[in-house]
Design goal:
It is found in: Cell membrane. This is Olfactory receptor C family, v2. InterPro entries: ANF_lig-bd_rcpt, GPCR_3, GPCR_3_9-Cys_dom, GPCR_3_9-Cys_sf, GPCR_3_C, GPCR_3_Ca_sens_rcpt-rel, GPCR_3_CS, GPCR_3_vmron_rcpt_2. An eight-stranded mixed beta sheet has the order 14-13-15-16-17-20-21-22, with helices on both faces. The chain has a six-stranded mixed beta sheet with strand order 5-9-6-10-11-12, with helices on both faces. 43% of the residues are buried. The chain contains 22 helices and 31 strands. It is 39% helix and 17% strand. The longest helix has 34 residues. The chain folds into four domains: 223 residues, Rossmann fold, CATH 3.40.50; 174 residues, Rossmann fold (3-Layer(aba) Sandwich), CATH 3.40.50; 51 residues, no CATH class; 262 residues, Rhodopsin 7-helix transmembrane proteins (Rhopdopsin 7-helix transmembrane proteins, Up-down Bundle). Helix 16 packs antiparallel against helix 17. The protein is of the alpha/beta class.
């Protein structure tokens, strides 16, 4: 059949529909025309005909006439059994199964609200509201049939004409998001606004797709934020998710994934409860839950889909699960009564409120008062397991009076102490009523439409009501109600904990709240001490893939596994982590190092050659002993200065050598201790000048020895050029060159204290930087040059006659001196930290001792132990044997 235009009625689905442009009832004589196609020309033709239903919609409903009609769609049954189709016979009607007394209470709340409004002289005076309530059986297909039945008049299924009822301006429905999507898209064609009391899918906030949709329940965008904050609050980083296979479950999962993205929360698994319940598929899901290490399971599902799933779960002996309930089932009394293992469940429920007269109204409903309403008969069968009238079906229940007393034990139906969804239904009806009231109060010339016009009260269009719905603001039970630009209400949830009493009953206890109007990060408030966890535990269960990494360790992800699964790796040296589950270790500042546990940065050990170190003490004692020994030799020489062995070896130069050696020993002490600016400059210059002085004296003595033996040749007058004055000039000149080099060094780039933090990362090595490497090596090179010249000259004079040829000892002393300092260079370059200084001190002391022993030990031996050899004849080799 061709799609009708805006002005013509048509028959579709269950009967005669009125369009958004034609909301007044069809004439009593019937719908005058129907559009058909000529089979030969394929052109549309119009022919007079009477309205007739194309099929029966035999689902029971509540109906009442009024000036304005409001539709209502509720999931009065859990599920529907679709008929078999053999394509040879007309399929029978779908059978709804599993009466839901909780949803029946919602439907009665709509009737109660409408009756209250009709009896209110202040709200909608002179106007009455009618209603048509149908069952969706919690299924989108049946919800589609229900909305088509709502759009038709109450008697369309029994009459061949369109009966006269009030115009349909709005619909209250639905609970399931998938059903609401179907209903809203159908209503959009006719511009009829729809207010949902329990559909939370975030997809319904899209005004482009659902321009006529409103709701008095928060969107799942806020619920998933609340769930994500709850998971973070209790440290549940490894979770499973079970959803229904509908838009509600799919969009809730998407929202939750978006909220936990870039956090330390991971999904261990995600499973969907199949639309068509199959035990094999449910067993597969339960097997995944049994094998998983995730102990926290978030469930986004309606109670109708979740009820049979829990029935299988109960028989599988799976324990230790912490259930996180969505608002769709967190206050489902039938689940709490049927499955006691759900004690400890925690989840977010829509805000509760007060519905005046609800309890009394519910107690007035019984089979005797409504004998022809099969829903009431099913209610009695669900509550008491009996029937007030013989059943027409094959299932026979025991007969009862139909006037049995309702009590609080029937909590699924009689839960009136803290109504939530029921309260939402109550608010939705009042939202339409207040919007109509504002519409009727419109003053011509001050209206919201074109030319400041007001709606025609005798012909109100649904889109006009929608405008007032968008702007409505009123209060019910102390709560302010309004809608934002997307048709959503203010986000607010109660945190509910399922707690078992001693008698076995489960109570829904409020232990916190989530208020989306609060500042970011402060929306969730929890009373931790009020929560009772599964197994009556007072401590929240753990649900992690890997245990937390303690301070001193960092998390290292495992290849191919979620971020929540990791290994704990100790921090590298020089890095710390002072928090649990650190992603990375922090490097310590340059002058700090990590402690043994890697949890804190501590100041680095400052290392230098100290007077308190064992090595420093040994070197200091050795230097002092060397200087004392040198002074002792000097004293011996002074005491025996008149003996031949002292005089023949040039006593003045010997005294100079001993004084310079004493200074060489003492300058080693400057290298010990914490480096300062003055000590750094002094240690290198003192060392170089004293050694230059010492080698210069030895060089002068070598020249004198060489000249003395060559002067014995006839005509050789060389000794007159090497007298005492000339010797002093040679010593002063050679030393002056070194002093000039040191002066230039100190002026251009002097040595300075240096904190070396790179050689050993755990220590700060205090040392003296030489400043100018060129000057340092020039100083050493000059000393080496003097030593080489001295060595060569002494080597040439080694075979000169005489029992005491000092050239031999000078040669040997220079050989030791050069060997020590040649070995010093590689040792100095490669030695770490304070050992660099120790090597330099060792070279100074070793070379000083070498000079002292080689030059003066033989003389002291003769002076002290062999005085008979201390004669001129013996020294000249002329002694009589």
């Amino acid at each position: 059949m061709e799609t009708p235009d805006a002005a013509s009625p048509t028959m579709t689905g269950e009967g005669c529909l009125r369009t958004s442009a034609q909301l007044d009832p069809c004439p009593v004589s019937g719908c005058p025309f129907t559009r058909t196609r000529d089979p030969f020309t394929d052109k549309a033709t119009s022919a007079p005909f009477k309205c007739s239903a194309q099929g029966d919609f035999d689902q029971p409903a509540f109906m009442a006439d009024g000036d304005i009609t409001i539709g209502g769609i509720f999931p009065l049954h859990y599920r529907v059994e679709l008929p078999t189709t053999d394509y040879t016979n007309k399929p029978s009607a779908a059978q709804c199964q599993g009466f839901d007394s909780r949803a029946f209470r919602w439907a009665l709340a709509m009737r109660l609200a409408i009756d209250e409004i009709n009896n209110n002289t202040d709200l909608l005076p002179n106007h009455t509201l009618g209603y048509r309530i149908f069952d969706s059986c919690a299924t989108p297909v049946t919800a589609q049939r229900a909305v088509l039945a709502v759009l038709n008049d109450q008697e369309s299924a029994q009459s061949s004409t369109c009966s006269g009822g009030g115009p349909l301006l709005g619909i209250i429905g639905e609970s399931g998001s998938s059903q609401s999507i179907v209903v809203s898209r159908t209503m959009e064609t006719f511009k009829i606004p729809m207010i949902s009391y329990f559909s939370t899918c975030s997809c319904l906030s899209d005004r482009k797709q659902f321009p006529t949709f409103f709701r008095v329940v928060p969107s799942d965008d806020y619920q998933v934020k609340a769930v994500a904050q709850l998971l973070r609050r209790f440290g549940w980083t490894w979770i499973g998710v079970v959803t229904e296979d509908h838009d509600y479950g799919r969009f809730a999962l998407q929202g939750l994934k978006r909220e936990i993205e870039n956090t330390d929360i991971c999904l261990a698994y995600h499973e969907m409860i199949p639309k068509d319940f199959r035990r094999e598929r449910v067993l597969e899901i339960l097997n995944v839950m049994r094998k998983s290490t995730a102990r926290v399971v978030v469930v986004f599902s309606g109670e109708g889909e979740f009820y049979p799933f829990l029935s299988e779960f109960m028989h599988q002996n799976i324990t230790g699960i912490q259930w996180i309930a969505s608002e769709a089932w967190v206050t489902a009394s039938i689940l709490a009564e049927t499955y006691p293992f759900l004690a400890g469940t925690i989840g977010f429920a829509v805000r509760q409120g007060y519905v005046p007269g609800l309890k009394e109204y519910l107690t007035t409903v019984n089979p005797q008062r409504y004998p022809s309403n099969p829903l009431v008969q099913e209610l009695w069968g669900a509550l008491y397991g009996c029937s007030a009238f013989p059943s027409s079906t094959g299932t026979q229940l025991p007969l009862c009076t139909g006037q049995e007393t309702l009590s609080n034990q029937h909590s699924a139906y009689m839960n009136t102490s803290s109504p939530r969804v029921t309260y939402n239904v109550y608010k939705a009806v009042h939202a339409i009523a207040y919007s109509l009231h504002n519409l009727f109060q419109c003053v011509p010339g001050n209206g919201p439409f074109e030319n400041l016009s007001c709606p025609d009260i005798s012909n109100i269009h649904p889109w006009q009501l929608q405008h007032y719905l968008q702007e409505v603001s009123f209060s019910v039970s102390g709560e302010k109600i309004n809608f934002d630009a997307r048709g959503d209400s203010i986000p607010s949830y109660d945190l509910i904990n399922w707690q078992r009493h001693s008698n076995g009953d489960i109570e829904f206890v409020k232990v916190g709240l989530y208020d989306g109007a609060r500042d970011a990060g402060r929306e969730l408030v929890i009373q931790d001490q009020a929560i009772v966890w599964p197994g009556n535990q007072s401590k929240a269960p753990l649900s992690v893939c890997s245990d937390s990494c303690t301070p001193g360790f960092r998390k290292a992800t495992r290849n191919g596994e979620p971020l929540c699964c990791f290994d704990c790796v100790p921090c590298d040296s020089g890095k710390i982590s002072n928090q649990t589950d650190s992603i990375d270790c922090m490097a310590c500042p340059e002058e700090f190092w990590s402690n043994t546990n890697g949890t804190a940065c501590i100041p680095k050990i400052i290392e230098f050659l100290s007077h308190r170190d064992t090595m420093g003490i040994v070197l200091m004692v050795t230097a002092i002993a060397g200087s004392c020994l040198t002074i002792a030799v000097l004293a011996i020489f002074l005491h025996h200065r008149g003996t031949p062995i002292v005089r023949i070896n040039n006593s003045e130069l010997s005294f100079f050598i001993l004084l310079s050696l004493t200074l060489c020993f003492l300058c080693a002490l400057i290298f010990i201790g914490e480096p300062t600016s003055w000590s750094c400059m002094l240690r290198h210059t003192a060392f170089s000048i004293t050694f230059s002085l010492c080698i210069s004296c030895i060089l002068g003595k070598t020249l004198v020895v060489l000249a003395a033996f060559t002067a014995t040749r006839p005509g050789n007058n060389v000794m007159k050029w090497l007298g005492p004055v000339q010797q002093r000039i040679i010593i002063f000149s050679c030393t002056l060159v070194q002093m000039i080099i040191c002066t230039a060094w100190l002026i251009a780039s002097p040595p300075f204290p240096y904190r070396n933090t790179q050689y050993q990362h755990s220590k700060i090595i205090l040392d003296c930087s030489v400043g100018s490497d060129l000057a340092f090596w020039c100083v050493l090179g000059y000393i080496g040059l003097l030593a080489c010249v001295c060595f060569i000259l002494a080597f040439l004079a080694r075979k000169l006659p005489g029992n005491f040829n000092e050239a031999k000892y000078i040669t040997f002393s220079m050989l030791i001196f050069c060997a020590v300092w040649l070995a010093f260079v590689p040792a100095y370059v490669s030695s770490p930290g304070k050992f660099t200084t120790a090597v330099e001190i060792f070279a100074i002391l070793a070379s000083s001792f070498g000079l002292l022993f080689c030059l003066f030990a033989p003389k002291c031996y003769i002076i002290l132990l062999k005085p008979e050899k201390n004669t001129k004849q013996h020294l000249m080799g002329k002694a009589v044997k």
